[in-house]
Amino acid sequence: MSSTAKFTVKGALTRARIVEAAADLVLARGVGGTTLDDIRAGTGTSKSQLFHYFPAGKRDLVAAIASFQTERVLQAQRPFLDTLDTWEAWEGWRDAVLAHYGSQPHWGCPIGAMASELIGSDPERAAEVAAHMARWCGYLRAGLTRMRAAGLLRADADPEALTLAVFAALQGGLLLTQTMQSIEPLRAALDAALTALRASAP
Amino acid sequence: MSSTAKFTVKGALTRARIVEAAADLVLARGVGGTTLDDIRAGTGTSKSQLFHYFPAGKRDLVAAIASFQTERVLQAQRPFLDTLDTWEAWEGWRDAVLAHYGSQPHWGCPIGAMASELIGSDPERAAEVAAHMARWCGYLRAGLTRMRAAGLLRADADPEALTLAVFAALQGGLLLTQTMQSIEPLRAALDAALTALRASAP
Asked: What residues of B are in contact with residue A119 (Cβ under 8 Å)?
């Protein structure tokens, strides 16, 4: 993983600015559709500056963008994400997810799209992105595990399978928001996922 | 849409062979990660032959691949896809989907991945791919609409929202089969989607 520890405060801020602007370009065009020249032009950065902050070029940038996008999307799900152990928290989480993705152009999930696109061309980078997705899933699984322990889910409920189901609904809903240019598929997908969760209540 | 009407039988067969081989390459590497040279090499085709069958080059090929992949995946869901108006048919459909995707490398959904990748770089082609997805959804919606008419779903059930939820579960489950290299996310996603459908029964 890239670290900003080796830069001055000013340098770290410049690097963060480049990552944020490049993230938007990659979101709109895909990793394959975005060249380093596009990123230089879009961020007003010179070639030497870009390689100063990202010595391995696009590979370093892609890794930094994946971290940045993950933090952004996790933050948008807080505080619910950390307390998914009541039905109220799950409803709040659903609303926060819809509000976050409803407030921006329908670009799908930046993390899922990167993982899917990279897996064929750069498996190492794809694995890094998949690790971010696993971390995201971890919050859902932790909540469901606590709910089962508290008796809000039946003893035979499987937190792992339910986590995969909710996360698949989220990712698939986001893919369809992109192809249909509407938030409705995400709403329908999350509503159905929460219905399925509640079917595991005692 | 490309047509094969202008080719001889032999020509149409050659074209179909190129599309099938190119489809596998694009599935593994993405549209952006596959060049026409890759396709020439992978299909043993000359440049002039490729442009004879696909005058607009990669754009024509991508359109042909999307049609081919859609037919292949719809065929794998038959006969259930045409008769999704009983709970038994939905269970059969779920099993057919799992058997189809479980029997091949975990490449995700060829249609969803193409739509997502193309939307930033080639909106016109992306809309064609999205139309294939809409056709696929149409079979699910038709079944659910008939189930509601037959009283197997409540009168207040919304076939459109349920269709989006099932299709999102399928697409998201497939994305996760790719990033996690396991069929389990797809199984969990489809099981939860069918649980949500059954929650709309009277």
From this structure: 178-179
